[in-house]
Amino acid sequence: MKKVVIEKFRNGKWLHRSNSLLGDKNKVSAVLMHSTRYIKKGGLRKVREEIGLLRAYISDVIKGRYNGYDRSSLTLSLAAIIYVISPLDLVPDFVPLGLLDDVSIVAWAVSQLAGELERYKCAKAQAEDAPSDDSEKPAEESSDHCDEETESLKEETF
Description:
- The chain has 158 residues and is an all-alpha fold.
- It has 8 helices and no strands.
- It is globular, with a radius of gyration of 16 Å.
- The two termini are 24 Å apart.
């Protein structure tokens, strides 16, 4: 079932919808706000942290706090969030086990985005460690230490 769900997600409306929303920061913000209550659903417990990471990544990009992002990664991140909040996705949330497809999509998306999300986390950590007068500067690419971690992660995932 997992393979079928992922294939239908990849070939469905989710990526297109995400890409079209990215031109409107207000709509993206509304999607992120709407997704906060979905994180609390019991069936999503296994991927709660991953959903939070995707939400933070998208939010930091649209607010200009993270500039080192990849557009296709941003599109996939938002598509996964849109999928989770859609009540009528491939397996509607109101049927028994209806959140399993959501869990599968989030887990798959995060695995596909591993390198990008690692760069984001490193850049965010670097920005948080910067002196307070630099706190308004957006996070850029990661430090040497993070670059080494990202390179090793790329080798493992690809």
